[in-house]
Amino acid sequence: MRRRITLLQHASTPYDPTQAHLSPDALSLRTLDAAREDRTTFALDEIPSELRKVLQSCYQLHVRWASERPAGAPAPFASRVSSGLHVLFTPGEGVDGDGESLCQTLKQAFGDEVDCVSPESSFITPPILSTRFAASTSSQFYSRLPSLDSLIAYIERGVCASSSDPDSCHQQAEALRSADSLDINYDSISHALTVSGFWDSAPQGGWTEEIAKPVRKGTDQIEVGLLGAEPAKEPEEIKMGGLLGVVGNDDQLKPTLFSFPARHHDLPNEATYSVSFPPPTGLHPTMTISLPQASLHRPPAPPDATCALHTYLTLPSTIFGDKYQLSTTDPLFLSSHNLAALRAVAGETDLEAPDWSVSRWGSTWLLELATPDPTSDEWNVTVPLHLRYLKPSESGIRSAAVPWPVVFWACTAEDGTKMGVNPFDRANLGWDGLFGPRTMFYQLHPAPQPGAPLVEELEVPVLRLENEGIFQGKVIELATVAVISLGFVWVLWKLGLVVRGSGGGVDARKREKRGKAE
Predict the structure, then answer these.
(1) How far apart are CA 486 and CA 512, in angstroms?
(2) Where does it live in the cell (predicted)?
(3) How many angstroms separate the CA atoms of 370 and 381, rounded?
(4) Which of 2, 201, 276, 348 has the most CB atoms in a 10 Å sphere around its CB?
């Protein structure tokens, strides 16, 4: 087991050397105000056997979870996904019959609200616009997941019980309750499972804890870095400086300074966006993405780079877009919504299917946004969407939750730029595979109203069911059968009248002919 703790301090945050003290036995943190990433890597033989069997059936598996709380994303942890649970998966070669076990494991780990049956029936196939991006997975899944309570219980029950340091395992699991994001990665090349939690800010009073040296010193290792961002020489680079140490090996933290090319960059705090659905939403709501002027400035990419503003929508099965409408090249339609083009779509896009007939989780949409000439006004982008017919309810209303999309600038990097060597790189986000491997992304910051989540709740009108009365569910079914049966009988009766009428006419003509002959 290898653990890497990265504490990232803002340039304006004061630092006192007594806040972090490394001894031969432990690292002591005292009231340290910093963002934090805690990454733990497990070998396959350190994983419970049931989970190990599921992982060995995967060529690669990537789980991304983001909280519904708004949070910052400082470099080098600038990448974002929509709130909820994202699963990106490629099965192993020649592996059959293990799809259902993956979904069963997801339910056990994250809760029964994860509506997954098997990758074949529940996942969607994302488009790959860049064939050079070899890391892209073959299928994708999403589910709303407000908290990690089920995962914490799963870890404490199934992982900590066999851990060499159960107390530390329980402590790390409980810390996930306040995490802003979580990544889980496995691939068949490294045969290692990596779990990474990220906290945008320290708890009240700062980080205060003792990080003891590993129990199994020969096989386990704990690396710690106290870092801060420095001005980089090149636009595509991120430069970090600070202190590094290995708990149990080093007796003091050592200074360091390094830089690396990065695909994901942050923007100033003023570069924000907000999302809303203007009322009345009805069955055809319009998503409005509002961008202040600070978000429309070209990002600090290399001067010869080509940049465009994009948004990536993750839409559950209850809501969808019309791909024929959004893929139009009609300049009047595009300009009326401040859209440039639909770049990619995947998943359920049937215009007529009700929600109960849709087996897959939903759809994803990559849209390029139009940008205005310099102006001081707010820029609004609108995306016309449609709600599926939902099952009846006693109130006549059902709720549909729509996570906020991510909004970012995508800029092409120079041909000679290499993006591979980055200790903090984050790939397989669902949308990054739709661009070339040397594309740089500049993330805008979601800015909801104070206390509001990064999810929009829509009220969907449905058929009303009453406990007493004609609109009770069973009565509707029986009435439907009765109406169809009566209609069928009426058609047969009308056909009988036509046949009888035509038969009588033939007999009359025959009698008339016999009379003339006589």
Answers:
(1) 39
(2) Endoplasmic reticulum membrane
(3) 8
(4) 348
